[in-house]
Amino acid sequence: MSEHFRECTSCVMDARAADTVFDSTGQCNHCSTMLATLSTYQPVDAGVLHLRLAAFVNTIRTAGRGKRYDCIVGVSGGADSSYALYLAKQHGLRPLAVHMDNGWNSELAVNNIENLVRKLGVDLYTHVVEWREYRALQQAFFDADVIDVELLYDNAMLAVNYGLAKRYGIKYMLSGSNTSTEGMRVPSNFNWNKFDRKNILAIARGDGVRVRSLPTIGVLGLVYHRLVHGTQWIPFLDYIDYNKQRCIDVLVRELGYRPYPYKHYESIFTRFYQGYLLPQKFGVDKRRLHLSALICSGQMSRAKAGELLAHSPYPDPDELQADIEYFLKKMNWSEQDLADYLARPERPHADFASEAPLFAQMLRAQKRFLPGR
After folding, report:
1. Helix (H) or strand (E) holding 38
2. What is the CATH number of domain 45-264+323-369?
């Protein structure tokens, strides 16, 4: 195995991930950093974790007293966000479930969300994007040959959630993100800053597209919501001993939840993007990141992860062909359009106007003046 493809001896990350460094034992910095972080969020004493959760739930209740909702939980239909909503209800919170429909939801995801909110008895706010505009924006990202086409959805989702928090005076947004299954830092060549509104507008402008209705949020918007309104985005599952499979079993048993084969496959586009476009065009298999996080948290063996990676992200070739045909039809592409896209070289997001320098400056200021946040 060449140095370029050298694989960590502890997880399954390899040297194709940017900034990868191996120590003398062959362990990479990605998993060593995550292991150190896990010790902070997952104390050995389960009682400490229980008290931490109880105290935080009480804080949410106090902040939400007299309001219609005391927290927001964004739901995609995936296991992590679904369990975050379940956990909130189990502890007597009054969440508003928020979903963003960008036109790529799988039928399974729609059914999972409907079952979830109905059986838990929570209100659901769904923001439906204007499809023609969204398709034009996705096309602009494809034409730009940048890696993070999902920046459009992720940024809009953040904008919608922060906007609703402001509308209802909610201080806490509880996400399904967590250290146990997502605690490994995403390498810089795998995606882009999710608060980079300027980058979105610049890429769109380069293709002659105007952002008219899609909600967006930039770095200054983040600062505004956090400092002026005191809104906090909290990885709620860090307050429990989050074992993904065990929690999926609970969702299946109690809510009729139907799981997906891989992380983030509740969206047809995300499934196609992560399972086909990323590996074929950019040489990125995000399963390495997701599986490595599970290895670090003791929820999967390295051998099992290796077995999964030995197979295509699409175990069923017929499903891949169906997704290709669906993608081509929905984007109004021909097979040649797809071939041309895959053949073109990647272009960095930094080639376009960006808020990355401002975001880096904000992080430095936060470490200096608010070291505990």
Report:
1. helix 29-41
2. 3.40.50.620
